[in-house]
Specification:
transmembrane helix; 73% helix; 83 residues; transmembrane; mainly alpha; membrane
């Protein structure tokens, strides 16, 4: 079994490695070392992607709102100080 269950992959994407190992060991009815080996192999084959630029904005509405607020404040400051 090379593929991990979706719940385990979701924990890995949320950077909760130990919880993923625990869940996989329960799922496989195997020991922690075997689960950890499979997790490490999965992470080696599928390294995590760290979002940058526009992808951060698409990942969360809060990120987009913060970016929009900062841009608006910057534009207002430019208008105020250019007078």
């Amino acid at each position: 079994m090379n593929e991990l269950p979706p719940a385990v992959r979701q924990l890995l994407h949320a950077e909760q490695r130990q919880a993923a190992i625990d869940l996989l060991s329960e799922y496989l009815a195997a020991d922690q070392k075997e689960a950890e080996r499979r997790i490490d192999q999965y992470l080696e084959d599928n390294p995590p992607i760290h979002l940058r630029g526009a992808a951060i904005l698409r990942a969360s509405r809060l990120n987009a709102l913060i970016w929009l607020t900062l841009t608006t404040l910057t534009a207002l400051l430019v208008l105020i100080f250019s007078l």
